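PT: before anyone asks, these are the final sequences, not the draft ones from last week. 190 residues across everything. Please model them as a single complex and drop the result in this thread when it's through.
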Amino acid sequence: MRLNTVRKRHFAPDPTAPAACCDMPGCAEAAAYRAPKSREALTEYWWFCLEHVRQYNAKWDFYKGMSSGQIEQELRRDAGWQRPTWPLGRLGGGPGVIDELEAAIDQFTRAPAQPAPKPGAPAELRQPLTILGLAWPTDIDTLKARYKTLAKQHHPDANGGDRAAEERLKQINLAYATLRAWLRPHATVA
Ligand SMILES: [Zn+2]
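LR: through. Structure below.
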């Protein structure tokens, strides 16, 4: 697999990866993937595991205008919120794991660069979907459940009144409102 040098956001396992663990705070996975530190520092890299390089990739739009330092702050604050986002749990063991992992890597490295891959999602919903870590299509019940989890996680009371958590919660609220408004008229009435 060759690293595409033109489209910098397509990542492949990097043979020059340092023997270190993922830059995502709290993650002890081996770091085999690199990602530019910010739009201003495209030749400086974070080193991530597959799960976290995917997460970082998906949030690239969210990091727009942030410096490497601000992104790092985001990553630190984010360290606990991304787990349910990527359905990689099935890669956890058993036969065929390597094949599955390779398929996942393959799929990822071919995914469109931006915005985050949400095939078929209306353009105005892509960012809200990324913020909430939801796949498309989704429904109002999935949305509500996801919102409940995130709102709890990012509530300032659960974060010592942290202003950044407050800011994140605002984004979550806004994303939720946008998706709910869109899904409501489309909901099937039982
Ligand atoms: Zn990681």
